[in-house]
Amino acid sequence: MDLSDILEGLSPLCSVDSDSAYSSDDSVIGESHGDPILTFTELPEAEVEDPPLEENQTRDSAVIHAREYQLEMFEESLKRNIIVAIETGTGKTQIAILRIQAELERTSADKLIWFLAPTVALCEQHARVLRSQIPAVQIKFLSGADGVDTWTDVRTWDDYLRNVRVVVSTHQVLLDAISHAFVGLDRLSLVVFDEAHNCVGNHPGSKIMARYHSHKAAGLPVPSILGLTASPVMKSKLEALEIIEQTLDAVCKSPTIHREELLSIVKRPTMHYVFYSQQEYPDCTSTMESLAMVYHSLDIYKDPYIIRLQADDSERSRIALKKALEKRNTYVFQQVRSLWRKSGEIQRELGPWAADYFISATVDQFLRSVKKNDQWFREWQVEEKQYLAKALGNIRITRPPPFEEDATITGVSDKVNALVQELLRSVDDTIGIIFVREIATVTVLAHMLSLHPSMKERFRIGTMIGTSNHAGRKRDLSILNKMDGHQDLEGFQNGTLNLLIATSVLEEGIDVPACNMVVCFDLPANLKAFIQRRGRARMRDSKLILMMNSPTTLVDKWAALEEEMKKRYEDDLRQVQELAEIEESEKGGTEVLYVPETGAHLDFDQAKSHLEHFCRRLSVRQYIDSRPYYIFRRMHTSSTDFPQVTATVVLPMSLPPELRRIEGSSVWFSEKNASKDAAFQAYKAIKQAGLLNNNLLPLRDEFLSGVETRAGETEVQERWSPWKQIAHAWDRRSEFYQRRLKLIDHHGDLMGEFDASLPVPFPNVPTFEVFWDGLKTWTVDLTGEVKVISAQNLLADQSPALIDLAYRHRNFEVRDTAQVLHFRSPSQDIPFQQLVGQKCLEKASVDGSAVIRDGNGYPFFFKAWLPTLDPGCPVKDELQNQPTDVPWLMLERWSRRRNFLHPVDQKAFLAAPRKPTQTVYPAHLCRMDGSHISNACFGALIPSIMHVMEIHLVAAELCDTLLKDVGYSDISLVTTAINSPGTGEGTNYERIEFLGDTILKTFTTATVTANYPHYPEGYLDAIKTSIVSNSRLCRAAVEAGLDKFILKKGFRGNKWRPLYVEDLIKADADTAIKRQMSTKTLADVVEALIGAAYLDGGLSKALICMRIFLPEVEWRSLDESRDILFDLTPMNTELLAFLAPLEELIGYSFRNKNLLIEAATHSSFGFVNSTGSCMERLEFLGDAILDNIVVSVLWACDRQLDQREMHLFRTASVNADLLGFLGMEWTISQAATEISKDRNKSIIVTQTEIPFWKFMRHVSPEMGKAQREAEERHALEREPILDALQHSQGYPWVQLAHLHIPKFFSDFFESVLGAVWVDSGSMDACAQIVERIGILPLLRRLLADKVDVLHPKNQLGILAGKSLMTVQYRNEVRVAEDGSRELFCTILVADEVIVEMGGGISPEEIQTKAAWEAYKILKARKDEKTIQDEVMTT
User: Fold this and answer.
1) DSSP, residue by residue, 592-654
2) Helix (H, G, I), strand (E, B) or coil at 63
3) Residues sharing a CB contact under 8 Å with residue 880, sequence separation 6 or more, in sequence order
4) Over the range 929-943, which residues count as b (16 or more CB within 10 Å of their CB) and which as e?
5) Strand partners of residue 1245
6) What burial letters (b/e) apply to 216-252, b meaning 16+ CB within 10 Å?
7) Fewer CB atoms inside 10 Å of the end CB: C or N, the chain?
8) Residues in Cβ contact with 59 at an 8 Å cutoff, skipping those fewer than 6 apart
9) Is the pLDDT confidence value at 329 over 60?
10) How many angstroms separate the Cα of 949 from the Cα of each of 211, 551, 768, 774?
11) What share of the chain is helix, strand, coil (3-state, %, to 5)?
């Protein structure tokens, strides 16, 4: 094997994939003071090569055509699993494309092909190429950016992968999917491993193949494997090849038949050597010496990090403090040390000019940033910036002379001069990369070359370095680049730049064009780096330039380089190999957590990342550090020379006490394995506690995944009609039900009585009003006694005759046959079609008791007999020729309405122009009905009466079937609950739905908290959401069959037609007619029925109703839930001394003091005390209790509030800003004493007010700071807010938002309220707490004074919406010239800028303030336009 084969055979140790949420992180969790993580990691990555372009292989529209050696490898891959081993730049990707296309042809559509690459950047490039080459199938690139870590059930994965044939991802993504049984190996038909040499050791690719081998050994189906690599041997040992082959169950193949063609494609650069002289330890410049003095004079005890750790004094901080002091290791110290080290490196490499420039530029940049308070060092603590700025200000800097004026100054190193000369000798079309070891060197060297008189006209220079990809990581002091290099990389790719100076980040993994010159400014660190750099110079006649400081003969130098590179490479591996061998010998790490039901399993190496993910999912609240951390203990044993380690992992306080601290099961040689052991034991305990699902993921995700997506509308059953059933009952029954109906006029006098008959029991129809016109309101009374009569005694139905009397003039077709609802006068015979206009008029007989009809048969009420026509009376045109000296009649028009169930709009009735209600008509042209007028009036009302009866029959059917167990006594509540808004029935469900929603959420909250006593608040909230979500309630309505009882359409009198028994019997009863209905309506009706049940029979009936619709929930009464929760808390009658005033303040004495202690304990307190519980579960309860109390008050308000009003007043009463403010106002006096300064030394007693919020226990410095800042704002702004709350006609939304009180203030009050409920079981006791803090008094004031509580954003939206205009909010932070930052909000209405406002301290506050100003502007415009319109009309 020659040297080139050895170099090609060596490649990266591993590649780092940070894409998946479960990628392993073996560092100990704690506050980081290390260097930033780089976006383009300096660790080795793989490369997507640009296949070389020759005359017989072209790129056209990104389509790559295969060469013969590629086809040879493709054919081999069809026969068996292979690893294709060919050099960089020869088109391995094209072989994979061919293989994928073949697999697509020969496998079914349910199979997947998975393409694996080590980095996200590579995956993106592969996906792009695959999509261009195989456009006919769906190809998806899957990464952490897709939220893959939140996909917690098979359904989500199946939905994502539906119709997908090829997936591109990192190895970790597929490993997680397989481990959690989301994607089975049997679903994969082909797996492609790019950079296959990485699949060694604990690499995710190796773990995927371990699953593969297990399946294969068990006789289960496994996918085909295709590996791609330029260097299958990771180490300089040929045995490694066998390991890779065994791991991938494949044989390594290179072209044999077309080997010559392959060799002709590979264009290795010629190697050139540039020698320079360099001092090993050059003298420091005066600036460097000053920097060293500043560093050595730093006092570590004044370092802000040390001061913060001393003040914190928690277990975690004490561990960190000891470590920092022992190693003199704080972030500031690291930065100054790093600056010193890098300046020395730059001096050696580039010369003293560069070192002075680097120091001065770095210091200037930092001091300028601190002064302007810009974003460059925003992650730093303010105290750290000030501390470091003070130190750097003491450096005596000697400014270097302008470089561009004299590039030959002695301050430039020989190495730089040698580089310049080499660059100047290069050909005109040179495209080159200069690889440099240090980031700082990249920046300074690029600066020097760009200013060099001989270079700046020849080369267009850019830089490429890595930058932090973590928003919370602090920026390195010495990074001078304000760009991460992406822009320069683009310029290099498109030809704008022709020389790129880069760190090793560009060695592989980033797609760059082939170059004809690569300069190794520093010798490659190892053979792998040499190979990767050489691979970048793959144009024809390219050069690889190695710069060296020890001149020797070419052959001797190369041999020395080879030996040095081998030695350095092996030295790098030795320590890692020893540690790996030790860890491999610790066999305890082979334990696996396995779930037989799903096949999910988690091994020793996965536990740590999974545990951190689990803890992160517990809470997303501010000021809560939910990360696990590890405590290590070392011990020496006589059996080994090395100390061994055990670890304990500490978990968040929101978990049960028994899960807070979990110890590892064994002792280890490394902290890494010890922490993995503890994490594994913790994850196992968490699974045993029932907090993980069978995919070994947090249950919270599973609960939330149960919240179905909800379409706007869905198809449901047609509304059930009772009339078909009643029609059939007329033929089947021998006994019938009869009830006397009374029609009472607006004076309270009886107009008429009629017997209504049905073959089924009558529903309880309450008395209701009918509205004849704008002046007459009559009453229909159906509450009379029900009689049961036989068929022989049932007289004929008079409904057709009654309807004919009322509607004959409208050509209303009526048949003389029985209708479904019989009506009959008990005292009058009313024959069909014989009484209309039956009699002639005689003065003596005309008394208003009968309907008068004109010549066209139109009905009128008789008002007066006129012997002759008064000349002043208006007469219709067609009557102008009638004699006036004969009798005429004064008549009142018959109502034109057909729907008499709704009152006439009085304003419209009085304001609208209309015909006179009275008219005159010649008596000789009129006729009179032969029936009393009440019969005709009643006939007109029959459609409306039948509709009311139908609604109550529907409600009765619902009560007798689905809701039978509830036992509603007041059917009107049910008719209200099933009436949708918009039916026009005079009532709808909105009000009681609001009440039912509150009751449902109260029961749900109490039930889930009692049923899951060890679940953290995040889990409980997810379960509650899955139960009360509209999507679940919608499904409940459909599954229970409620949909067929919901009234969506109102009564339309003009479309009503008689319902005949014979027609309904003949009708097809099996027609499955469907209708569309809003899914929210379905959910709302469920909540409305719960509210109706509560109003009908209290909480017990509401609970029965909930059990009917949500049977899967193990519902408990509030008392039962409360008893369970009370018994769960260990009894304690002793209260912590400092909490005693809190009991006095709230006015409630706890039986179990532990409940108050728990309510007052923030989860951050777990670092101090890991035995108790925190406030989160009680706050979850208290939130529902508070809502319940407030809604109860709103419901009982003297004036009936509609749903919108109740919602607005509830929001105004329970929003977090108000609760926080009232919690700051709610104080208890406590005596404070001082000693007088006079001779008597008397005691001075004063009263100090302790606000409620100060009783919360926490150990978070950030929370403390937030509390202090809120207290300061409150002291300045409380008076105007109080005045507005007590006296204003508007609600102080803007002022409250400006206070910016953190949410934990309101959380504390809700947790105390929850604790009172658990301790007392009394809503009244809780209401007293709500009264004492001031919520209920404020609510009563808002109601009594009818305060406008609409939020400014809602007011603006409503006003704009009336004109169909859209509203946009745009927030931005602006930096002023003095460096100060200010938050601004711009509001656009219909794309017009209405207001632009600054001065906000939070986005919500500035949006609220801007919305109020925009509303006032638009309102003024509207008022002005209204005035102008009025002027124009007058």
Assistant:
1) EEE-TTT--EEETTTHHHHHHHHHHHH---TT-----EEEEEEE--TT-SS-EEEEEEE--TT
2) strand
3) none
4) bbbbbbbbbbbbbbb
5) 1233
6) eeeeeebbbbbbbbbbbbbbeeeebbebbbebbbbeb
7) C
8) 51, 53
9) yes
10) 68, 109, 11, 24
11) 45, 15, 35
β-pair type (461-464, 499-502): parallel
Report the candidate in 237, 235, 196 with the shortest Cα–Cα distance to residue 573. Answer: 235
Residue carrying structure tokens 């028009």: 893
Strands 888-893 and 918-922: antiparallel
Q: Which residues pair with 1227 in a beta bridge?
A: 1251
Alpha-carbon distance of 982 to 1052, in angstroms, equals 12
Report d(CA 1112, CA 1104) in Å as an integer: 13
pLDDT of residue 56 exceeding 50? no
Q: Please tell me the distance from the alpha carbon of residue 802 to that of residue 819, in angstroms, as a whole number.
A: 12
Q: For residue range 649-664, what is the model confidence (pLDDT) as tens digits?
A: 888 888 988 898 899 9
Query: Judging by beta carbons within 10 Å of its beta carbon (0-12, 13-18, 19+), is residue 1016 exposed, middle or buried?
Result: buried
Which CA distances in Å does 1064 have to 258, 721, 1115?
Answer: 86, 11, 43
Q: Take residue 1062 and report the two structure tokens written for it.
A: 């014979």
State the pairing for strand pair 270-275/432-435: unpaired
What is the CA 636 to chain-centroid distance, rounded? 50
Asked whether the beta carbons of 206 and 199 are under 8 A apart, the reply is yes
CA nearest 1073: which of 728, 722, 719?
A: 719
Using CA atoms, how far apart are residues 459 and 447, in angstroms rounded to an integer?
A: 12
Distance, in Å, from the CA atom of 1022 to the CA atom of 709, rounded to the nearest integer, reads: 15
Cβ contacts of 151-160, under 8 Å, gap ≥ 24: 151/182, 152/693, 152/695, 152/697, 152/698, 152/701, 152/702, 152/705, 153/182, 153/695, 153/701, 153/702, 153/705, 154/181, 154/182, 154/695, 155/705, 156/182, 156/705, 157/182, 157/183
- Reported confidence tier of residue 873, pLDDT bands at 50, 70, 90: confident
Based on the number of CB atoms within 10 Å of its own CB, is 1197 exposed (0-12), middle (13-18) or buried (19 or more)? Answer: middle
Decide: 1103 and 1121 in contact? Cβ < 8 Å.
no
CA angle centred on 1268, ends 1265 and 1270, rounded to 5°: 110
CB atoms within 10 A of CB 394: 11
In this structure, the number of other CB atoms found within 10 A of the CB of residue 592 comes to 10
Q: What is the pLDDT of residue 11?
A: 32
Name the residue type at position 494: N
For 67, 244, 360, 515, 943, the CA distances from 195, given in Å and listed in that order, are 21, 11, 43, 22, 81
Does the pLDDT at position 240 exceed 80? no
Whether the Cβ atoms of residue 173 and residue 142 lie closer than 8 Å to each other: yes
Give the largest CA-CA distance in the chain: 145
What would the mean pLDDT of 199-224 be, rounded to a whole number? 92
Reported as a single tens digit per residue, the pLDDT across 374-385 is 766 767 777 888
- Tell me if residue 85 falls in helix, strand or coil: strand
d(CA 1101, CA 1086) in angstroms, rounded, equals: 14
Structure tokens at 536: 């970048």
What is the bridge-based pairing of β-strands 432-435 and 517-520? Answer: parallel
What are residue 1387's DSSP bridge partners?
1369, 1395
Between CA 334 and CA 1346 the distance in angstroms is 63
Res 44: pLDDT: 31
pLDDT value at position 111?
92
SS3 (DSSP) at 224: strand
In this prediction, residues 671-683 reach a mean pLDDT of: 91
pLDDT of 3 over the 60 cut? no
- Sheet (strand 138-141) strand order: 138-141, 164-169, 112-116, 188-194, 224-229, 82-85, 251-253
Residue 470 pLDDT level (bands cut at 50, 70, 90): very low
- d(CA 232, CA 229) in angstroms, rounded, equals 6
